[in-house]
Design a protein that fits this description.
Strand order of the largest sheet: 2-10-9-8-5-3-4
Distance between the termini: 35 Å
Order of helices and strands: EHHEHEHEHEEEHEEEHHHHEEHEEHH
CATH architecture of the largest domain: 3-Layer(aba) Sandwich
Strand content: 15-25%
CATH class of the largest domain: Alpha Beta
Largest sheet: 7 strands, mixed
Number of domains: 2
Bound molecules: pyridoxal-5'-phosphate
Radius of gyration: 21 Å
């Protein structure tokens, strides 16, 4: 029988679950886009966006998804033929590299595989070799959403400084912002990219760039920049329309306003980070408990310090991950994430990965519920697993 009627739970790493308050804030007639409440409200959003990224620098808002944010960052950073060093720990790093290549940037990828973070020592060594200073910027995902590896951004900055290299540091925080601790200015990041639909709990459709005064200065002549992507007028608009290079994304902005209020003014960013940390640890404990009875079940990232707090990639042995995802969605109303970019589609191993998202508007009953449904699915499907998974997850939550 199916027990899927009731409120479904989309536990995929974006779009994330949206608070009803965010949905309600968007449910209104179109506002005047030239004067009045909307421009006034946007003036409150911009400082809050700086706060959520931990920067006093500039912020530019784009109508677009994360891929648009990637392209915005690249076009503002580079001139054709300039060089990017991309530190990849999974599919999203590789895709950002491809986006840069497609725009005419010369791209060098340092590939750290699919279950380990960038090694700062290797980054430092590579930058020391670049005596001519050809590398204009280092690009890295804070959390690679496919592998769920988390980079040590301060350590990468320290490696760049130790090498005495002038490259800018650009970080993709699309999966992590509003989930994992992130401090752009304290960590010495020059450009941060994010989007609305993950930790920021708003529908897909907004991308954000934060950039330091140093990046603004160093990239003044970037010739890949086009009028639409140009971060300058968006960050320092003289007229309201310039903030969005056209019509404002009216309803997304009302939703975002509500989400930022919930994150910054009500729960508070440190508490938001702590909640994601605790829920992530509950998921890790469950997987480790199941793995105790079946070595094929394990976390993709062995080192807890290198695991993202917003989403967790799990290995189960093919075809169990795909079977389990189908079961949880059709029998219990929980949709888990596919194992993106971990194996190719032709490889039967591709059915051996899944991802559990715990990003954004998620609380203990949602995460424990998803884990309990996974355990029920393993029982129903005869997937061998250790007995202690749920108990271990509950203990993590109980310690809260
Ligand atoms: C989701 C995500 C993207 C892509 O965002 P889209 O909105 O799907 O274009 C890029 N990078 C990371 C780290 C992500 O999590």
């Amino acid at each position: 029988m199916s027990l899927d009627r009731g409120r479904p739970y989309l536990a995929i790493p974006g779009p994330s679950v949206m608070p009803d308050r965010v949905l309600a804030a968007m449910h209104r007639p179109s506002p005047n886009i030239y004067a009045g409440a909307l421009p006034d409200m946007v003036e409150t959003i911009r400082p809050d966006l700086r706060e959520v990224a931990g920067t006093a620098g500039h912020v530019a808002i784009y109508i677009g998804n994360g891929h648009a944010g990637w392209e915005a960052a690249i076009t503002n950073l580079f001139s054709r033929g300039e060089k990017a060093l991309v530190l990849a720990s999974g599919q999203f790093g590789l895709s950002w590299a491809n986006a840069a290549r497609g725009l005419g940037v010369e791209v060098e990828v340092m590939d750290f595989g699919r279950s380990a973070a960038a090694d700062p020592a290797r980054v430092e060594a590579r930058l020391r070799e670049d005596r001519a200073g050809e590398i204009k910027a280092v690009l890295v995902c804070h959390v690679d959403t496919a592998s769920t590896v988390r980079a040590d951004v301060p350590a990468i900055r320290a490696a760049m400084d130790a090498a005495g290299h002038p490259a800018l540091l650009a970080v993709d925080c699309i999966a992590s912002l509003g989930c994992d601790e992130y401090r752009m200015d304290d960590w010495g990041v020059d450009v941060t990219v994010a989007a609305s639909q993950k930790g920021l709990m708003t529908p897909p459709g907004l991308a954000f760039l934060w950039f330091s005064p140093r990046a603004a200065e160093r990239c003044r002549g970037a010739d890949l920049r086009t009028p639409h992507w140009n971060w300058g007028p968006r960050a320092e608009a003289e007229e309201f329309w310039q903030l969005f290079h056209g019509t404002a994304p009216t309803h997304h902005l009302y939703g975002l306003r509500e989400a930022l209020t919930m994150i910054l003014r009500e729960e508070g960013l440190p508490a938001v980070w702590a909640r994601h940390e605790r829920l992530a640890r509950a998921v890790w404990a469950a997987v480790e408990g199941w793995g105790a009875g079946n070595p094929a079940i394990r976390l993709n990232v062995a080192d807890p310090g290198q695991r993202g707090r917003a989403v967790t990639s799990v290995l189960m042995g093919a075809p169990h991950a795909t079977r389990l995802r189908e079961w949880t969605e059709t029998r219990a109303g929980v949709t888990l994430g596919i194992g993106l970019g971990m194996n190719s589609a032709e490889d039967p191993g591709a059915d051996g990965f899944l991802r559990v998202a715990h990003m954004g508007h998620v609380n203990a009953h949602m995460t424990l519920g998803a884990l309990a449904v996974m355990e029920a699915g393993m029982i129903a499907l005869g997937i061998p697993h250790g007995e202690g998974g749920l108990r271990a997850a509950a203990e993590v939550v109980a310690g809260a």
